[in-house]
Amino acid sequence: MAEFLQQLINGISLGSVYALVALGYTMVYGIVRLINFAHGDVYMVGAFAGYFAIKTFKLPFFAALVAAMAVCAILGVIMERIAYKPLRNAPRVAALMTAVGLSMFYQNFTIYRIGAQPKAFPKIAQVNWQFAGVTVSNSQVLILGTAIALMIILHFVVQHTKMGKAMRAVSQDRDAAMLMGINVDNTISFTFAIGSALAAAGGVLVGQYYGVVQPLMGALPGLKAFVAAVLGGIGIIPGAMIGGLILGVAEAGVSAVGFSTYRDAVAFGILILILIVKPAGILGKNVREKV
Amino acid sequence: MMNNSGSVLLITMLLIASLIFTACANKPAEPAAPAAGDNTEEGDIVIGGILPMTGAIATFGQSSKKGVDLLVEQVNAKGGVLGRKVVFKVEDNKSTQADSATAAQKLIQQDKVVAIVGAVASSNSLAAAPIAQEAKIPMVSGSSTNPAVTEVGDYIFRAAFIDPFQGAVMANFATKDLKAVKAAIMTDANSDYSIGLGNVFKDVFTANGGTIVSEVSFVSGDTDFNTILTTVKNAKPDVVFVPSYYDTVGLILNQAKNNVGFPAEVKFLGGDGWDSPALFELAGDAANGHYFSNHYSPDVDSPEVKAFIDAYKAKYNEVPDALAALAYDAANMILTSIEKAGTTDAPALRDAIAAVELNAVTGKIKLNEKRDPVKSAVVIVVEDQKQKYFTTVNP
Amino acid sequence: MRAMDKNRLIVAAGAVALGIILQLLIWNGTLNAYYAQVLTMMSIFVIMATSLNLINGITGQFSLGHAGFAAVGGYFSAIITTRLQLPLPAPMIFTISLLVGGLIAALAGFLIGLPTLRLKGDYLAIATLGFGEIIRVLFLNWKYVGAAAGMWGIPGYTNFIWAYMLAVLTVIFIVHFMNSSHGRACISIREDEIAAETMGINTTKYKVMAFTFGAFFAGVGGAVLGHLIRLLHPATFSMTFSVEILLMVVLGGLGSITGSISAAILLTFVSEALRKFNELRMVIYALMLIGIMLFRPQGLFGRKEFSLDLLTDSRFMFKSSKNRGA
């Protein structure tokens, strides 16, 4: 029983990492219908920004977190303006390939400038709580807490603010939104800024949690986070959370029963099953196609 | 429509006929261009390198390149080899098999290298080795540990231990020195090095009367090991064998101690992949008390080791890892042999490498008839986040 | 129809002749083994890219699982050539292994296509990507084919002319398919699935057909690759490989066969030319890619084909303008 609970907690903390990254993924997708393959790498850039903020500029942890979020928010806007905006009316696959290109660029530029060696990220003092034979650390609580808090804040922003209303309008019908006097460019930029800042927050928290940053750290979590977002229903903010947690717990479960080599296969297997049963994801609504 | 499909059918048949014809005709015309490797006795001596400078294992490629660059700089400062300047030409292989093969062709055909250092991963070396063998260009891998690599042919050599030796060292160490009876194995499912060592460990440990209580795996790039560590911990092993590289091992040791709460008496064991200062950065004090096998120990009084570490620190401002040392030695095997053979001619150079006896950084290198080095391994214990010599195991 | 036929015959004959000339140049040493290797890689990528174009460009189904099919083809053909001791001459064994590899890959394509093709767009992409990864993980765990150590000692049957002729065959098949009634049905699905359905086209059948054929050629491509590098490793068939092929298809223009061919050749060449930059290699590659996509989002060729007609047309134009000048 204790082992089961412990593995559940392991799964939830892994899942909250996926959820953190998936939140930004899903937001950007919701508004521009773009699978931003570079999102995982923005997360990596955020982690490195946090690393240098602490190591070079000697900032305290939370200041470094904010600094990394700011850096990535700016990066997100620049990225959108230079690489995605010109392709807004181009075939969607062109934007997708540009995202792949950006992902390659971030990874390899970091390898070129900083080196491929992993760097040790300074950890905050660790506290472990034990109860009923189960261990929970403050880092795990911090990640899960941040993910939930960010999800609630995002949900609030999207549902109850003017900017959120603009975002929803743009995601439903860009041209109509423009006609209604919504500044579409600014709304999209804002979305990218938030999404990238979220990725940075994820990067710094995860860097801190595992104690490591390296140039390819975004590739695998980025892919998993994308799976999580699709699982929950892409474009839906609580869906990212749910998808992330399901994926994390499923992976932990597969490893716990002794099939760790098949872990990734099972993760994708679950995804495919859910998509076949419910093609728009767990929280997604099936939209009937109109002729 | 009839006409259309008729013509296509015709072409198809024509093609198949030409395919079979050319494939048959190809057989006798096969001998590989002997033009390669005909170095003039003047000018620079060009050594090639097939290294992963980008891609999944770029970090190991970068270390290896630093090692060889250092050696080349030192050799050229002393006037080069045979009075000629040595040039090291690296071709990136993106950490992939296909690119390793193409890189080998390029080095041999275009750059006319006299010998090749590389590749890092055994699977990459296995893709490049047949090409080097056919062109009769000696190839020395620093860090490929799969026995199959040198079995490709008599022009393929290595500087590292092979899996069966190193895996057995740690399995015997676990049984004899640590008196362990229950072991767990954690391997990187994507790495042939990791799987190879894990399999040998398993065989030897069970032959010694021990039992494997848990076998789990992860993939390179993973950062979360809490789940599999919890599984391993609950199997209650005496020792945990983690034959992987320092970048993941650092995280595993860290999470084992700090998140999963492994008792201190459970010892983690590993191979030469652990050897890097990054291990201690990533694991912190969680690395203390664990053991790994390596080629050399920094605190053993060996002038070669000391000179290498000092020179490396002076050039790059960091401590070398095992890959840098092995690549340095692999290149050294080639350059020493050229000096000894007095020529860069392939057959003479091949014979010289096969007979090489070198007091290298990673131990005394002398190759056996399978072109694998016969050298002793040291077991290192981590104390105060530093490597400490524990014992030597002779082959 | 006659004129088109004739043109196509000329192109095909020209392509065959070019292949034979190149192979002769390789034999007499004018093109060394390195050039032969690069030309062979180009041919393999032409097979991979045009077959993916059949699924992504012509039928409009977004697949990211091509590496998985290549893995199936590669591994099963290698089983034929290494594990079975067939008492046949080498070219026969290789031909059989290519066919078997391709057919098993086609079967995989069929089995995967059937359930997943209900999905659309990005959902299909992620599902096929997932299948590709699942296939890779299965090979990673299959001891018989070497698991994580990879499968080595595969005979090096592939040489330039094999890869090249197979690429020509692939292209001929796909062009022919495109212009058949089946191909037209596939194109109609790409243009408007609902309209196609209304017109009585069995969309599922054609989608699965495109998937199966695409997977067949991907399998053949994987088999050729395996017998070129004489080693198969699950890492070769990672998602990066699928993305690389997709890049070629998109860069050349979705639906343009000549585009896919040109892009496959171009990208292989660029990757080769940049090799010496080591760490900077992929940085430059990525920047170039972004640049091309920004300037030609529809791909180099769009949906158009580069054809002899075009060539003769332009020559005609050139002549007439010259006449006008005079």
From TrEMBL, chain A:
<dbReference type="GO" id="GO:0015188">
    <property type="term" value="F:L-isoleucine transmembrane transporter activity"/>
</dbReference>
<feature type="transmembrane region" description="Helical">
    <location>
        <begin position="12"/>
        <end position="31"/>
    </location>
</feature>
<dbReference type="Pfam" id="PF02653">
    <property type="entry name" value="BPD_transp_2"/>
</dbReference>
<feature type="transmembrane region" description="Helical">
    <location>
        <begin position="141"/>
        <end position="158"/>
    </location>
</feature>
<feature type="transmembrane region" description="Helical">
    <location>
        <begin position="225"/>
        <end position="250"/>
    </location>
</feature>
<keyword id="KW-0029">Amino-acid transport</keyword>
<dbReference type="InterPro" id="IPR052157">
    <property type="entry name" value="BCAA_transport_permease"/>
</dbReference>
<feature type="transmembrane region" description="Helical">
    <location>
        <begin position="90"/>
        <end position="109"/>
    </location>
</feature>
<dbReference type="InterPro" id="IPR001851">
    <property type="entry name" value="ABC_transp_permease"/>
</dbReference>
<keyword id="KW-0812">Transmembrane</keyword>
<keyword id="KW-1133">Transmembrane helix</keyword>
<keyword id="KW-0472">Membrane</keyword>
<dbReference type="GO" id="GO:0015190">
    <property type="term" value="F:L-leucine transmembrane transporter activity"/>
</dbReference>
<dbReference type="GO" id="GO:0042941">
    <property type="term" value="P:D-alanine transmembrane transport"/>
</dbReference>
<feature type="transmembrane region" description="Helical">
    <location>
        <begin position="61"/>
        <end position="84"/>
    </location>
</feature>
TrEMBL record, chain B:
<dbReference type="InterPro" id="IPR028082">
    <property type="entry name" value="Peripla_BP_I"/>
</dbReference>
<protein>
    <submittedName>
        <fullName>Amino acid/amide ABC transporter substrate-binding protein, HAAT family</fullName>
    </submittedName>
</protein>
<dbReference type="GO" id="GO:0006865">
    <property type="term" value="P:amino acid transport"/>
</dbReference>
<keyword id="KW-0732">Signal</keyword>
<dbReference type="InterPro" id="IPR051010">
    <property type="entry name" value="BCAA_transport"/>
</dbReference>
<comment type="similarity">
    <text>Belongs to the leucine-binding protein family.</text>
</comment>
<dbReference type="Pfam" id="PF13458">
    <property type="entry name" value="Peripla_BP_6"/>
</dbReference>
<keyword id="KW-0029">Amino-acid transport</keyword>
<feature type="domain" description="Leucine-binding protein">
    <location>
        <begin position="45"/>
        <end position="374"/>
    </location>
</feature>
<dbReference type="InterPro" id="IPR000709">
    <property type="entry name" value="Leu_Ile_Val-bd"/>
</dbReference>
<dbReference type="InterPro" id="IPR028081">
    <property type="entry name" value="Leu-bd"/>
</dbReference>
<keyword id="KW-0813">Transport</keyword>
<feature type="signal peptide">
    <location>
        <begin position="1"/>
        <end position="25"/>
    </location>
</feature>
UniProtKB/TrEMBL annotation, chain C:
<feature type="transmembrane region" description="Helical">
    <location>
        <begin position="33"/>
        <end position="55"/>
    </location>
</feature>
<feature type="transmembrane region" description="Helical">
    <location>
        <begin position="160"/>
        <end position="178"/>
    </location>
</feature>
<protein>
    <submittedName>
        <fullName>Amino acid/amide ABC transporter membrane protein 2, HAAT family (TC 3.A.1.4.-)</fullName>
    </submittedName>
</protein>
<feature type="transmembrane region" description="Helical">
    <location>
        <begin position="121"/>
        <end position="140"/>
    </location>
</feature>
<feature type="transmembrane region" description="Helical">
    <location>
        <begin position="282"/>
        <end position="301"/>
    </location>
</feature>
<feature type="transmembrane region" description="Helical">
    <location>
        <begin position="9"/>
        <end position="27"/>
    </location>
</feature>
<keyword id="KW-1133">Transmembrane helix</keyword>
<keyword id="KW-0812">Transmembrane</keyword>
<dbReference type="InterPro" id="IPR001851">
    <property type="entry name" value="ABC_transp_permease"/>
</dbReference>
<dbReference type="GO" id="GO:0005886">
    <property type="term" value="C:plasma membrane"/>
</dbReference>
<keyword id="KW-1003">Cell membrane</keyword>
<feature type="transmembrane region" description="Helical">
    <location>
        <begin position="245"/>
        <end position="270"/>
    </location>
</feature>
<feature type="transmembrane region" description="Helical">
    <location>
        <begin position="92"/>
        <end position="114"/>
    </location>
</feature>
<dbReference type="Pfam" id="PF02653">
    <property type="entry name" value="BPD_transp_2"/>
</dbReference>
<feature type="transmembrane region" description="Helical">
    <location>
        <begin position="67"/>
        <end position="86"/>
    </location>
</feature>
